[in-house]
């Protein structure tokens, strides 16, 4: 489940921290973080979620780690707990074999999407390993991996974002498989969502998803950056409820350029990071 602080989400994607008084007033910022490998230094910021204890967890992707910090901006810890480097993993669906879990603990690579389940376990997509790492947030230990490289159900090819709903259903955006998989927390695929556009020759082209977000009503919002569109799916019958963005990049209102993450905003609205337009 993704739970966000709205001001902090804005601050994260701008590399800044908002004061409480600033709210969404972009004229008041205080720089708090820098590029690097130290505590509260980042390289390739990706997803951010609020942990059950109220701290923030951010995917520090190019540093191959997760960082946890408090709402006041002070450092807490690195996840998973660092271990000596190990060989490549050989994962299968819901893999708890000690050897593979230890390899994932030390070979944590390119985390992108983050989500907590109802038990407080943290799920992180490792985009270049094609697996999901399940981390005990309190101990910092990887307890299992989900998935393996491939195109079959329950397999992944460059997984990006992840979200988990109140029923513990995982939605995983697979960029290179051009689909969203809905799975249970054991890694069993429940269904797939594939969004297609008509080509100039009259055929259909599947679009690559980037961000996923479960709405409180149980619908799933998915961003398609290469098509510059955000789509809301009714997962129960695989139908589309609405689309935002015209399918062509642009800067005007209602137009997008490489949309990535999406979350709840205020007053029932949604917020999307319009990445190449450098705005939300």
Describe this structure in words.
This protein has helices at residues 6-14, 98-106, and strands at 34-35, 41-42, 45-50, 56-60, 65-69, 75-79, 111-116, 122-126, 131-135, 142-146, 159-164, 170-174, 179-183, 189-193, 196-198, 204-206, 212-214, 220-224, 229-234, 239-244, 259-264, 270-274. The protein has 280 residues and is mainly beta. It starts with 5 loop residues before the first helix and ends in a 6-residue tail after the last strand. It has a 4-stranded antiparallel beta sheet, with helices on one face. The longest helix is centred in the N-terminal third of the chain and has 9 residues, at 6-14.
Largest sheet: 4 strands, antiparallel
H/E element sequence: HEEEEEEHEEEEEEEEEEEEEEEE
Query: Which residues form runs of ≥5 with pLDDT under 50?
Result: 5-23
Q: How much β-strand is present in the residues?
A: 35-45%
Distance between the termini: 21 Å
Mean pLDDT: 87
Tell me the number of strands: 22
Strand order of the largest sheet: 3-4-5-6
The rough form would be described as: globular
What class, by secondary structure content? Answer: mainly beta
Radius of gyration: 18 Å
Number of helical regions: 2
Helix content: under 10%
Q: How would you classify the quaternary structure?
A: single chain
């Amino acid at each position: 489940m993704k739970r966000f602080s709205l001001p902090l989400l804005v601050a994260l994607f701008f590399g800044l921290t908002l004061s409480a008084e600033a709210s969404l007033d972009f004229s008041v910022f205080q720089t708090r973080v820098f590029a690097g490998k130290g505590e509260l230094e980042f390289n390739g910021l990706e997803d951010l979620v609020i942990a059950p204890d109220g701290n923030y967890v951010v995917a520090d992707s190019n540093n191959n780690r997760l960082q946890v910090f408090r709402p006041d901006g002070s450092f807490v810890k690195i996840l998973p707990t660092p271990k000596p480097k190990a060989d490549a993993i050989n994962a299968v669906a819901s893999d708890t074999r000690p050897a593979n879990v230890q390899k994932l603990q030390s070979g944590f690579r390119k985390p992108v999407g983050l989500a907590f389940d109802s038990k407080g376990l943290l799920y992180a997509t490792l985009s270049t390993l094609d697996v999901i790492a399940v981390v005990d947030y309190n101990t910092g230990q990887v307890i299992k991996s989900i998935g393996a490289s491939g195109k079959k159900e329950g397999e992944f090819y460059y997984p990006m974002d992840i979200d988990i709903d109140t029923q513990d259903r995982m939605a995983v955006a697979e960029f290179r498989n051009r689909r969203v998989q809905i799975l249970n927390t054991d890694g069993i695929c429940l269904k797939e969502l594939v969004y297609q556009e008509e080509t100039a020759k009259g055929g259909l082209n599947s679009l690559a998803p980037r961000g996923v977000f479960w709405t409180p009503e149980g619908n799933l919002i998915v961003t398609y950056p290469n098509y510059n569109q955000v789509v809301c799916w009714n997962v129960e019958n695989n139908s589309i409820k609405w689309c935002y963005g015209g399918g062509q990049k642009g800067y005007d209102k209602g137009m997008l350029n490489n949309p990535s993450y999406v979350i709840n905003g205020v007053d029932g609205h949604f917020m999307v990071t319009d990445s190449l337009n450098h705005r939300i």
